[in-house]
Amino acid sequence: MKITQISVFLENRKGRLYDVCSLLGGNGVNIRALTIAETESFGVLRIVVDKSDAAIKLLRDNQFVANFTDVVAIEVPDKPGGLASILKLLSEHDVNIEYMYGFVEKFSDKALLVMRFEDTDFAQQVLAKQQIRVVTEKDIEGL
Amino acid sequence: MDVPFWSREIETAERSRIEGLQLQRLRQTIGWALQTALYRKRLSQAGINSPDDIKSLNDLRRIPFTTKDDLRVSFPKGHLAVGMTDVLRVHSSSGTTGIPTVIYYSRDDVDNWTDLLARSIVATGATSADVFQNMMTYGFFTGGLGLHYGAERVGMAVIPIGGGNTKRQIQTMKDFQTTVLHVTPSYLLHIHSKLGEEGVRREDLALRKAFIGAEPHSENTRRKLQDLLQIEAYNSYGLSELNGPGVAFECVFRNDMHVWEDAFIAEIIDPKTGEILQDGQEGELVLTNIVRRATPILRYRTRDLAFLHPQGCDCGRTHRRLSRILGRTDDMLIINGVNVFPSQIEEKIMKIPEVATNYLIHVDKKGALDRLTVKVEIYPKLFLGEVSKLEALKRKIIEELRASITISPAVELHEPGSLPVSEGKAKRVVDDRPKD
Fold first, then answer.
1. Which of B387, B411, B415 sits opposite A65 (nearest CB)?
2. Which B residues 386-425 touch A at CB under 8 Å?
3. Is B2 contained in some domain?
């Protein structure tokens, strides 16, 4: 099950990240996971939110450069070696990860991670076979 | 003061003799120009169909002006007056668009140009005993090869190091005990600021003179260079359309630049009306090259603002002196000695689909050197969220611009709507370099 990540282009300007967060917050959109890819002169904010359709409309209506990307969120045992065990499985099945970052909350005692794969469909098949729990959009809305 | 000469006779000739030579050479040049597609038609429209139609120097005003745009339209060979068999060298400079301005030189042209540079070098008091480090870029740019040949003709020990690589420049100045430099003023200031870092003291160097040119600078900058490095700095003027360096050069008195009037006819005009102004009045410099066989250029609008001194010089030369360049009549930028037209930048970035229509060209100083930053807005529909794609876009813009303007600008990507809008007279160029 894929979930939607929203990417927002941020130019190197004071208060720009605040602008995004206050816009979303002021309109009742809750950020569930967040990371920033930064370069010398600009950044790309990546977020997973509870209402992604509303959020992207809001951002675009307010002249932000934003787009969707499919990502997969999975549960990882929250203990030493937990992430390593998942990465080992993925690596053995030739699944390449482009980037990943963590959720703030979790459903259970397991940690939640967002992963962007080179080939999302293939990665999902592998995850399903290995019976690794994949988080759905519904899960996120209910978090 | 000892006043050295390369060609004393012509450099100190009576004005009447210089003007006689100018008329004779102008007529010869008209004959050559009539062999080009560029001039045949426009001269004929002005009623000039043979050198005999030029009776006196006063007839010069009947000849239409030539602009950079004319040379763009005639690219590549519309202004070439000989066959390629007779061409010995090609140089080119920035055009206002992607099409450069190209100039051809015959064997005689290179020889005459070299001689003017030897004359210029000797006028500063430099001699065959000097070690000459040429820090100007070689290649299409005329600054490197022009002075190189001139210095060889004088018999100097020539170090053809070319532009950039400050560590190597400093080490070379020390290793070879360089005495004379050819350099842009900003780069020389930069070099001075790096001496300490390289562990080199002034007394480790044998510097005594620098020829400075290719970018405008104030008298204050010249004095600063002279004081900091304890050298004599000589102003140099030239442009590739008129050979390159060696159009005008300062003598030992360092009180503005003698225009070599046996090779060029200099006029100062009102840039708006085209009216010819008197000596001493500031206006646009217009130059005619009267000794170039392969590419005759008549009444070229340099777009440089300057004036000609009405009185002679203590050195005894009769060739009039040209003031330093006081400004431009167009929007050309000079970035570390490289001429850049904003239109060249616009043309390139507007061809890149990921870039929206707003852009800004920003120039400032980083230390002693100029820094060019091109700010563009990204086109929202082409943003897919990938950082690598944006980085690749930035690299692509830098590559495209470097191919056109020869220098690599910094490129900044911005959100749509954050730069001044394209309607009306948006200010596309912001030059924050201090004016001293």
1. B415
2. 386-387, 390-391, 394, 411-418
3. no
Chain B residues in contact with A69 by the CB 8 A cut-off are 384-385
Question: Chain B window 352-391: which residues touch A at a Cβ cutoff of 8 Å?
Answer: 378, 380, 383-387, 390-391
**CA distance to A19, B194, B288, B345, B350, per residue, from B390 (Å):** 21, 35, 48, 19, 17
Q: Is B200 a domain residue? A: yes
Q: How many CB pairs under 8 A join A and B?
A: 51
Domain count, chain A: 2
Radius of gyration of chain B, Cα coordinates, nearest whole angstrom:
23
Cα B265 to Cα B46, B174, B195, B243, distances in angstroms: 19, 41, 42, 14
Residues B316 and B393 in one domain: no
Q: Among B385, B414, B416, whose Cβ lies nearest the Cβ of A44? A: B385
pLDDT one digit per residue (tens) for chain B, 436 residues: 889 999 999 999 999 999 999 999 999 999 999 999 999 999 999 999 999 999 999 999 999 999 999 999 999 999 999 999 999 999 998 887 778 999 999 999 999 999 999 999 999 999 999 999 999 999 999 999 999 999 999 999 999 999 999 999 999 999 999 999 999 999 999 999 999 999 999 999 999 999 999 888 899 999 999 999 999 999 999 999 999 999 999 999 999 999 999 999 999 999 999 999 999 999 999 999 999 999 999 999 999 999 999 889 999 999 999 999 999 999 999 999 999 999 899 889 988 988 887 889 999 999 999 999 999 999 888 888 889 899 999 999 999 999 999 999 999 999 988 887 755 556 789 999 987 6
